[in-house]
Amino acid sequence: METIGERDNCIVPIFIDALNETWNRKLWKSGLFAIIDKIKENSMVKLILSYRPEYEKLILPDSFLEGRGDIVTMLHRGFEDNSISAAREFLNHYNIPFTPLEYFGYEMSNPLFLTLYCKTYNGEEVSLPILYDRVIEHANSNISRVLRVELRQKGYTEDDDILSPLIMEIAEWLVSHDERFISQKDLAQLVFWTEYGLNAVPFVRHLVKEHILHESIFDGKETLYFAFDQMNDYYCAKAIMKKRQSKDEVHRYLSEKILGIKNGEMGNSWNIDLFVNACALYAAKYGEECIDIIDDLENSDDKWQVFSKYIDSFQWRDTRYIPTSHFRDLLKKYPCSPEDLWLMLIGNSVKVSHPFNADFLYHFLLSYKLNKRDYLWTIYINKLTEDDNNRIIQLIQMYDKGEKLEISNEKQIELLLTLFGWILTSSNRWLRDYTSKAMIEILKEHFHLCQIILAKFKKVNDPYIIQRLYGIVFGACCKRIDTKSFQTLAEYVYHTVFDQEKVYPDILLRDYARLIIERFLYEDPEYTGMIDREKIIPPYNSDPIPEIEDQHYLEKEYNGAMYWLMHSMRFEGMGMYGDFGRYVFQSALHDFDVDDKKIFNYAVYYIQTELGFSEEYFEEHDRHCGGYGRNQTIKIERIGKKYQWITLYNMLARISDHCKKIDSWKYSVKEDVQFEGAWELYVRDFDPTLNQNFTTCDAAPKFDVLDELPAKGKEENKTADISTADAQEVWLETKGIFFDELKDTLILTDHHGIKWICLTKYCDTGRKDLNTGKLLVWSWLYAYFVSPEQADELFRCAENGQSVITHDTASHHETSSVFNREYPWSPSCKELNAYAWVDAQIKTGEYETVKEIIEVPDISLIEALFCKYGGLIEDKEQKEEEFAEDGEEDFEIPAIQFEEKIRKREIEKEIGKILHATTDLLWEAEYDATKENAISQSLPCSKLIETMSLRQQQEDGFYYDSNGMLAAFDTDLTQKVNSVIVRKDILDTFLSKTGMKLVWLVDAEKEIHAGDYSIIKWSDWEAVFIYEGDSIAGEIHRLQGKES
After folding, report:
1. Residues 309, 340: Cα–Cα separation, whole Å
2. What is the pLDDT of residue 900?
3. pTM beyond 0.90, yes or no
4. CATH top-level class for 125-231?
C-alpha cells in the first residue's frame, strides 16, 4: 500500500467499519494499538475507523483516548440535513422509484429504517406492522442461510420460521419486566434457546447484523433492544394481545398496567406509544377502537398526550381498521392540537388508498369558514419554512427546480396538487409563491389535471386559493409539454368565470382566467365554439360598492391585530398613512373617479364583516409579523394583510366594473377612458410564466468576443497617457481598440459555425475602480428595423457629421406590467407593441429664424419675501418696517408677462416611424417572493417574433423557431452581456419578408473621471451602422461641439 501511495502520490486509506459490531469488543481495546503502530511506519497509508459514540470507551485504548490531538474526528449525523437527497440515493441504489409513498413515508428519514425498507421492498403500499413482519421474514431467511449447517443439524430447513418465536419471547419478556432493553445474560436465558436447541451467541450476532436488535451500553452493561422504538412497541403490543383473550381483559390491562391509570391519573406516560400500538391491534382484532380507555383520565393534558400519539398512528396503521366513520366525533371529544392533526393528514396526503389522504384533507378544510380555517390551518403552514428540512418545503423546492418524484399513478399526482392547493391559503409569501411555481411544473407535464383542480377548488371560500389557481393554470397553459389544443379547459374557464350572471369579483382571477382563454384563441384562431369574445373583455357584471354608513374607523382605538391592520390600511390624508393604504390601495384607486374616504370605510367594513377578521384568532400571529419594508416580499405577512389583499382585489374588480376610469395623463379629456385589464393598475403580483430556475439554456452558445472587447479596451486604458491636457485631448480624439472593433461584436459565429446577429446592446470598459483608473469608454447600440429609404437618410446624416441620436431614438422599448410568456400576443401588449414604433428625425445642417413668445418671470414678490426672510440686507430693521407697512395681505399675483424673442433653430426632417428591434420586460414592482431581486430580460420585438413564429419552450427568455432550433436570446442570461442576439438565417428571412433593413444608432462616449468619480472631460461619438448581410456598413465618428 505504501508503494502504491508513493507511486501515485496519494494517500491510501484503510477502513475498519463498525468496530462496535464485533461480538468480543475488548479485542479492539487490546489489539488496536498494534495496527496503529504498524500504520504509523508508513507516510502514505492512513487509518479510518467508524463506531457508535457510546462504545468509544469500550473499544478504544485509554491512552488512545487521552492523546488524540493529531487525530481528525467527525460526528456523522445521518440524514439530519439532507434527508431527501439521501433517501433518493438509497432508493436509486436498490432500483426503487422515488415516489410520494417513499417521500412522505413514516420514518423514511431514518437511515436504518430506510435500509430495511429497501431490502424488503416489493412495490406495494404497506402499513408499518406489515413492513416489520416482512423485515422479520427477510431476516429469518438470511439467518437460516448463514446458519444452515447448524440449523440442519437440529432438523430445521430454510422454510421454517425460527425468528418470529424468538422475537415474540423477547417482547413478552420486555412487557413482563416493564423494560425496553434486555441484557445479554437475560437474553441467553430465554426458553427459546433450549426449546429450539440453538446457540444464542451466533444467532444474536446475526440479529444485530440484520438490524433487528441493537446493542448499547447501559450502566456499564451491554444490553440489546429492538432496532426501532416503534418496532419494540409493535411486538410488545402483539405480546399483550396474544396473552389476553377478551376485550375486557385487554381493556383492563392497557388501562391499569400499560398507562397505569389510577384515580384518574396516568402513571406510565412512557408507555403511550405501546398503548397506541395496542389500540391498532385491538381495532384489527375486534373491529372497534379502544381509545375510550382514556375517558378514565381526568387531566386534559394527559388525554392530549395520548390522543396526539393516537392521531399520529394513522400514518402507519393498517388502513382497513381506521375509524373514518366517527373520526370527527373523536376530534370533538378529545383534546387535539391542530399541529398533530395536520402532520398526520399531510403524511397520508398522497396515499391513494388511505382514507385520510388529501381528498379527506380537502373536504375537512372546505367545511370551515375562511377565518376559522386561517386560524387552524394557515397559521400552521405559515411556519413550515422555519425548518429547512421540512419535507413539504424540500418537495416544493424540488419541483420548482424542475426535479420531480417518480409518479405513474395520476390520482397520486392529483392528491399532491390538492395538498399544494391548500397551501395557497398561506400568507407566507415565500411558501405561497414557491408552491405556485411547483404546481406549474407539475401541471405542465400533467396538463389534463388543470381542469380537475380548478373544478375541485371551485367552491372554496378563500379567494387567495382560487385566484392563484387560475394563475397557475395560465402558467401551465404557456409552459405545457403537450401542445395539443386545450379547448375543453378554455370553455370550462369561460363558462365558470365569464358566462355567469355575475363574474367572480377578483381583479387578478379575472385577469388570469381571461389570459387562459386569450391564449387558447391565439393558438386556435379558427375557433368558432361557445366562447363569446366580448364576454371576456371588461367591464363585467358584479355588485357595485355599496355606500354604507360611516363606521368612524379612524376615530376608534385599536390594539393587537386590528391595530396593525389599521396602521397599514390608512390612506394619505387620514393621519399617519400606511404603506399599503397609500402606495398600494390608494395608488390603484387614482385611476378611477371614486371617493377615497368611502372606499376606505367600506374596505375596513368588508375585512371585518364579510371576511370575518378576528382579533381572537389572529392577534398572536399578526403581532409577530411586523418589521418588514413594503418592498420586501420574502416574508410571512399578517393574516390581516392577507385580508387586505383579498379586499383590494375584490373592490378593484367591482370598481372597474362600475366606476369611470380617469386618464391621469389627461391626453384626451373629452373621450371616455376604457378600463382594459389589471396590467393597467400595476396590481399584478405574480408572474406564473417565469421561473428563474429555467433562465439557463445548455443549447445557447457563448461568444468570447463579447467578453474580449471590453477587456481589451480596459487594458488599453491602463496604458493610456493622460498626464497633460494635450495628452487627454489626444485620448479623447482617438478611437482606440474599443471603437475600432465595435462592429466585430455585431456578427458572431458560434462553435458550430452558426452565425448570430446582435441587436440592441450595451458595453463598456468597466466602471469599477474609476476613482483610480480614471478612464471609461461606453457605447449603446440601439437596433431598429427601418425602410431602405430611412436607412439611407440616417446613414447620410451620420456621414455628414450630424447627430442622429434623439430623445426618442435613444430610448428603450420596455414595460413592467407584462408577464413573460404573454408577450407579445396578449391584450396587455397591444399598446406596448404600438409604442415600439418611434418617430425619427434627422438634422439637416440648415437653420431657420423663428419667433417665439416666451414668458417673462416677475420676481418682485420673491424679492420682497427674500428681503423679509432672507439675508444679504443692509438695513434689516428698515426693510422689515417697509414690509410691514405694505402688509402681506396687499400682495397680488402679478399678471403673466410675455415677450417676443427671435432665435435660430436647426431644421430637422421627419423621416417617419422606425421600429425598435428589441423589447425589455422588467419585473421590479411585483410581490413575487420567488424573485429575490428585480429581473429584466431583453427580447426580440413582437414583429420579429410573430413573423418568424418564434416561441419559448422549456427555458424562459430563450426563443426557438418552428423546427425547435434556438433562434434568439438575451446574452445577459448566458454571459452577463447586455445584448439580444438572433440567428442570422432567421434575421435574413425576416428582413426579406418585410422589406426592412436593420440599423444600429450608436451613442458612445469616452470619459475622463476625477477621483470622486465625477466626469472632468469627455468626447461624444456616434454612428449609424447598417446590416448588409455579411458585413456592417458605417463608421463611428466624434461629434464636434458637444465635448467638454
Report:
1. 8
2. 83
3. no
4. mainly alpha
